[in-house]
Design goal:
361 residues, Rossmann fold, disordered C terminus
Length: 361
């Protein structure tokens, strides 16, 4: 039996009691009980078992170097949908931190007195908040001592002597408190994750589809240009194909929504001799489309035109979609003139909107 004195309080513990001046290097869950308050529970260290795609390693190394050269708390926001690499990045970063003797603390729940507990740790550590915006609601009412995002601001700013690296993962960046966004002095980096595209998908499929089923690869790549697939989806597709199922059967049975919804595209219509029109359209790549537009000729002749096309026949080259020999119909607005049908070709390129995350890892 071991007797521990704290102030005027004495407590007995088992003979396996060990006392440390610092948190031993490793990975810990931050837990809570009404009797003990917040405490750390050892868990297996983060390991990277799969191939890493993209530049995750370089970004993680950048965060580590910045933290080592900093004299105060630092932080990283990892934003983007599920299944696109945020968890993998945290494992890479956590592994690098542990290799450099920085313990990693993982906060999986909103716990009473959490802010005070972490703030009192006088040691350089990494603290990971997973799905932060879901578990720490912005300006939530007090729930048995739980913390809101706003209440954690002072923790992230840091007045204690123990320098810490705070890592936040979130699915929706705009659910974060405004005082977390655009504040590099509080959270230095914001890495935006998006679904894999192009050569990254091809590389993944080449690595994970058995050679005897390689004839399915191109069909999957064409499909990925219509529907955004994350790594979870790609992994499930590859596992089914490697069993022997066709891609067509696989995609109909898997829990993947194949209706991509309407997206914005720049539409260009070409006649044999010249470009006929250029406008923005909403397009669902799984439905046929009719586009209506106005035609002005010589500042006097006003016609209304329609171009109809079936999206199943679109030819894909990277992010550019095209189709030859589309039937263009147009007629005078007063309906007195003859209508005309002419073969044209179309080209569609995705519109870039301010909400798109174009700086993905």
């Amino acid at each position: 039996m071991k007797i521990i004195k704290s102030g005027n309080t004495y407590r007995n513990f088992g003979d396996d009691l060990e006392v440390f001046d610092k948190i031993p290097n490793g990975t810990y869950n931050v837990c809570f009980s009404k009797q003990a308050g917040c405490f750390l529970e050892k868990r297996p260290d983060m390991k990277i078992m799969e191939k890493v795609y993209g530049n995750h390693n370089e970004k993680a190394e950048k965060v580590l170097k910045s933290f080592q050269h900093s004299i105060k708390n630092s932080g990283v926001i990892l934003s983007g949908n599920k299944g696109i690499g945020k968890s993998l990045f945290t494992r890479i970063l956590g592994s690098k931190m542990i290799s450099n003797n920085y313990p990693v603390l993982i906060v999986e729940n909103n716990l009473p007195n959490l802010s005070s507990f972490i703030d009192e740790i006088d040691q350089e550590v990494m603290v990971l908040f997973d799905e932060f915006e879901k578990k720490f609601k912005d300006n939530q009412e007090d729930m048995d001592g739980a913390n809101s995002q706003e209440e954690l601001l002072s923790l992230f700013d840091g007045t204690s002597t123990g320098k810490k690296l705070f890592v936040i993962t979130c699915n929706n960046f705009y659910d974060l408190n405004t005082f977390f966004r655009d504040r590099p002095g509080r959270l230095k980096y914001h890495f935006r994750f998006e679904n894999p595209k192009g050569e990254e998908i091809r590389e993944y499929l080449n690595d994970n589809i058995n050679s005897e089923y390689s004839d399915e690869l191109e069909e999957i790549i064409e499909f990925s240009k219509k529907v955004e697939l994350n790594f979870d989806c790609l992994n499930a597709i590859c596992s089914e194909i490697n069993i022997g199922y066709s891609f067509k059967e696989t995609i109909n049975d898997l829990n993947i929504t194949i209706d991509s919804g309407d997206r914005d595209y720049n539409l260009e219509v070409f006649t044999k001799t010249d470009k006929f029109m250029n406008k923005s359209v909403e397009l669902n790549l799984f439905k046929s489309k009719t586009v209506r537009f106005n035609i002005y000729q010589d500042n006097s002749h006003h016609s209304v035109g329609y171009v109809n096309f079936d999206t199943d026949n679109l030819v894909m080259n990277g992010e550019i979609l095209s189709m030859p020999n589309v039937r263009l119909t147009y007629f005078k607005e007063d309906k007195d003139g003859d209508y005309k049908v002419e073969n044209v070709s179309i080209k569609l390129t995705p519109c870039i909107t301010k909400n798109e995350m174009k700086f993905a890892l």
